[in-house]
Each structure stands twice: as structure tokens, then as C-alpha cells.
Amino acid sequence: MFRNAPEWPGQVEYRGAEAVVRFLQEEVVNVIELGEVELGHLEVIGDEIVIRMVARTRGAESQVDIGMIPVFHVAHMRDGRVSRVRAYLDEGQAIEAARAGIG
């Protein structure tokens, strides 16, 4: 299961890899182009992993370079596998979600 960032219009849960890929191709790519992604720090909080990264973004239509923006994923581990990923643009929200076990 993947849930997009709270700032993204229309909060939706995507279940399964195919649904996540479809969301990324049909929605994200139409708004922003993602370029290089740099993995930062990983922090384990209980069964949650907060993944800090920065991604180069550009307006899909305008081609305006937005620059390197921070993105935070909170991955929930169950039975040694990732069972849920939620995206955040705010580090505090990501950490709070991980601590609450709702990441």
C-alpha cells in the first residue's frame, strides 16, 4: 500500500506495485518531472523506517527547475517485508507518523 503526500491533491491509497506505478506515471509525471534522487538518512522507529531523500524536480509543462526538494517516505515493515509506504514533504509529519505507527 502506498499513500501519497498530504499536500498532493486527492488523498488515495494505492494497493499493489502496478497501482503505484500507474499513479506515478499518470499523475506525478503529468505535474512534475523527477530527476536525480539522492538517498539521505534512514531512521528506524519501531516497525517503521523513515527514509530521507532529496529529488530534483521540474514543472512538467513549464520545464521550470524547482530544484532539489526534500521527500520523506515512511515504510512499515511486516514479516521482513515492506507492507506500507506513505510519502511526506514535511519531515516532522513523517517522524510523527512513524512514532504513531501510522507511517
Percent of residues in helical segments?
Answer: 10-25%
Structural class: alpha+beta
Instruction: Give the rounded overall mean pLDDT.
Output: 83
Instruction: Summarize the biggest pleated sheet.
Output: 6 strands, mixed
Give the termini distance in whole angstroms.
Answer: 11 Å
Cα radius of gyration in angstroms: 14 Å
> Which consecutive residue ranges, at least 5 long each, have pLDDT under 50?
none
> What is the number of strand segments?
6
Strand content: over 45%
Oligomer: single chain
* Total count of helical runs of at least 4 residues: 2
Order of helices and strands: EEHEEEEH
Question: Taking strands numbered 1, 2, ... along the chain, how are they ordered across the largest sheet?
Answer: 2-1-6-5-4-3
Shape designation = globular
